[in-house]
Amino acid sequence: MRREVRALLHILVGAAVLHISLFSELYLRYVRKGLRPYLIAGGVLLVAVGLIGAAVAARELLRPEHDADAPDAHHGHGHGTPRTAWLLLLPVLAIYLLQPQALGAYTAQHSNSTAVRPAGTAGGFAPLPATGAGDPITMRLADFDTRAVWDTSGSLKDRQVRLTGFATPGPDAGGWYLSRLTITCCAADAQTSKVEIRGAAAPPKGAWVEVTGRWQPDGRPGQDSAVPALAADQVRRITEPGDPYE
Length: 246
Prior knowledge:
The protein is 28% helix and 18% strand. The relative contact order is 0.14. Strand 2 and strand 3 form a beta hairpin. The protein has five helices and six strands; from the N terminus they run ααααβαβββββ. The protein is α/β, with parallel strands linked by helices. A five-stranded mixed β-barrel has the order 2-3-4-6-5. The chain has two domains: 95 residues, no CATH class; 133 residues, CATH 2.40.50. It is elongated.
């Protein structure tokens, strides 16, 4: 591949990274918010490398064709660039033109991974606000999921909570889950949290909603057979958050 083509690819890739991280929040569809400085630094570095490469390529093009030191000079002509090399531009153009959506209902519905992790004992959970003082309690879906399954102290009993996520179909006709994806680093390690919603009609698949309700025990807490479920008092449609992951 010719030096000028490599330089162009470096510049375009770097500009694409800056486009999603510095000038917008599209990067949140791919990685956690804390990685933004690294994306910006990486984009700046790629653009700088590309500009340096372009300057070197331009200097070489200005050399006399008979200059034997020119890397692309061979018997008075250059080697050219394979046409297939330009296909490398397609992923870069896709970032500008297609703007892939964040992982959502399809991933959650077909995922075998779960963000629910055993907490060991009830002592592993932070105390909730005093009864009535903070109800409804706004919680991360993954936190409710874990507490509903593994908190043997029953701290959620008779407490009203507010959860945010998107709707995914349940195994039974008319049933549905409130789902959310949790990422540690990037979308590639996404894990799914699901809470079965009872007593409310299912929104369209993938619709973002805010559900207020009360924990409905199903199974024995502290065992894998326990089901995180919420008896809904209110279901409200909302727009997708800027950061779709927990």
